[in-house]
Amino acid sequence: MHPWSAPAVPQLPGRGGPVRVHDTSTGELQVAAPGPKARLYVCGITPYDATHLGHAATYLAFDLLQRAWRDSGLQVRYAQNVTDVDDPLLERATRDGVDWRELAASQVDLFASDMEALRVLPPDAWVGAVEAIPRIAATVRAMLARGAAYTLAPEEGCEHGDVYADLSADPGFGAVAHLAREQMLALSAERGGDPQRPGKRDPLDPLLWRAAREGEPHWDGGTLGAGRPGWHVECTVIAADDLGSGFDVQGGGSDLAFPHHEMSASHGAVLYGPPFAGVYAHAGMVGLDGEKMSKSKGNLVLVSRLRAAGVEPAAVRLAVLAHHYRSDWSWTQAGLDDAAERLVRWRAAVAVGGDSEQDAVLADLRARLADDLDAPGALAVLDAWASTALAAPGGAESGQRADLVADAVDALLGIAL
Ligand code: ZN
Known about the structure:
Blueprint: E1 20-23, E2 28-31, E3 37-42, H1 53-71, E4 75-82, H2 87-96, H3 100-117, E5 125-128, H4 129-145, E6 149-151, E7 163-165, H5 181-190, E8 207-211, E9 227-229, H6 231-243, E10 247-253, H7 257-272, E11 277-283, E12 286-288, E13 291-292, H8 303-308, H9 313-321, E14 329-331, H10 333-352, H11 358-370, H12 375-391, H13 395-398, H14 403-413
Bound molecules: zinc ion.
Residues 43, 81, 235, 260, 264 line the site of zinc ion (ZN).
């Protein structure tokens, strides 16, 4: 797929230091990539509902990582998938009486335009599940061949059975999220798994290949028969193909830690040997006015709707960055108003603050971001600098534009002042 256009990123003098992020699998801060290359995979959308603030916050978190990495001199390779065939997409298309392909294409376009407006750096490889199906099918066949998967008896009316991963083939299973079995069973049921399905060797075993059903889209799977891929193996294949197994950071929202990242990592370990990724980094969940934001509650705040209402995307970006990426937080109108005011203040300070301590601001911004992408800390640095610059004697009449601060905010935070 063709990703959205990349925003220009100013080159800053000098270099940032190594970036550390919190790794879910160890519970500790880790250097996110030893270098000289940095390989990032962030799970993409299922395109059936446009970009809400929760998605935006996740992609903005990993955008900060990419920007900090680049600033520290690393060569970044970034891959992202699009789950452009899956149960929720097909269910939504049926409900709305539209073709699932058209629904997916329109939502992919909307997502891309939201990302572009938010000045998110695009992935180098943006790969749809549908285009990866031949490679995913080959991977599922390879897992069957080495005894790491099994086929259930065909359901009535089906020619072939569904294929599941056999988790007992992976002695390291559970190393990403470190959950108790009861928690894993509950989350599996809640997040798209099917622990109740009879015939599986272990209730947690995840689907690798769903045999064709009447009325469902399907593709040739060779000896698997016609069908379509499961979600976890989709990401295993797309990440490993583009980045190589053992890439640096697997990212996503915290609701993906289990089962999605656990299962993708397990498939990767079985196929290529552990670890599938060096670091598992997770962004918190975004609510609305204190409630969980969810499709079922109908309280999604969509980036596209904010844009249509005339909200400046930079204000949306800044409202998100006011919260640490790992925290769970709530979107509020007050937060957006604060961000808009902050933009006005920073722009005024940049217009006159050229005489102030710009090198120190750059160093402090770099230090904040290298420390687990501390965006709120970076905002505090800029707030303090802006107050000083605006209070300086002479003010607007004599001041020079603070180009270095403007470039730093652009390059590191993705906000043009
Ligand atoms: Zn994924």
